Amino acid sequence: MLLIDLIFTFIDEQMNTVMKSGQLLSYFAMLLPTLMHAQPGGEIIRLPFDPSTNCQIRYYYYPNLEAYYDGKSGLYFYKDNGSWTSDKQIPSGYRGYGLFNKANIAINDYDDDDVIQFIESHRKKYPYNSLRKIKNASTASID
């Protein structure tokens, strides 16, 4: 029993030292960003960061689906029967599209929770044509 008392006394002294020096707060501050992106399964999601916009690259827009992928939650957001829905995957054959052709745009200027509010501006900025090429809105087009 004496050994256990000595161990608890040692741990208590160490915690008091850490608390007094403010190191515990520093450790927590360093750990907090990692904890914020921990998923329920325990995996940690590290999103790319764009220093020019000061945003994480959380969303990807699929122009011919008019859908988004959220890298933080791992969900796709798309319209189903006129209403927005989310799921871990796009239904097979949705709007005749396969995700494997990688026609998507990284949204680098928004990383909050309601990206679908920008669907109209993203439709205009990143139109999609039937030749499976994304048209750049800043380039003139005869289409």
Q: What can you tell me about this protein's structure?
A:
It is a single chain. The chain has 2 domains: 2-36, no CATH class; 49-125, no CATH class. The protein is built from 3 helices and 7 strands. It has helices spanning 2-21, 23-36, 119-125, and strands at 49-50, 55-56, 59-62, 67-70, 75-80, 83-87, 105-107. It has a 5-stranded antiparallel sheet with strand order 6-5-4-3-7, with no helix packed on it. A two-stranded antiparallel sheet has the order 1-2.
**Structural Rg:** 23 Å
Sum up the overall morphology in one term. elongated
The share of residues in extended strands comes to 15-25%
Distance between the termini: 84 Å
In the predicted model, the low-confidence regions spanning at least 5 consecutive residues are 24-39, 137-143
Largest sheet, in brief, is:
5 strands, antiparallel
Total beta strands: 7
How many domains, as an integer? Answer: 2
Query: Averaged pLDDT, please?
Result: 73
Helix and strand topology:
Elements: H1 2-21, H2 23-36, E1 49-50, E2 55-56, E3 59-62, E4 67-70, E5 75-80, E6 83-87, E7 105-107, H3 119-125
Antiparallel strand pairs: 1-2, 3-4, 3-7, 4-5, 5-6
Short précis:
It contains three helices and seven strands, in the order ααβββββββα. With 143 residues, it is of the alpha+beta class.
Highlighted features:
143 residues, alpha+beta, 2 domains, 5-stranded antiparallel sheet, two-stranded antiparallel ribbon, 3 helices, 7 strands, 18% strand, disordered C terminus
